[in-house]
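Q: What would this chain look like folded?
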Amino acid sequence: MLYLARRLYLPTGEVLERYVVKSGGDCQLEWFPFEKESHSMILVNELYIQKSSDGVLTIGEIASI
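A: My prediction, written as structure tokens:
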């Protein structure tokens, strides 16, 4: 799944703007700066990435538009 986040909040406290977050079926996350739109992207205002107790990065809260 692809999300286009206006604001992306990382577990470190860093806030990134206009980033794409790709979540895979095996719970792996990638994020990268937005360059071009894809028809399968979901636009969200805010997306929070959190680190679970076992150190895995997951999508926490999503604030839709």
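The chain has no helices and five strands.
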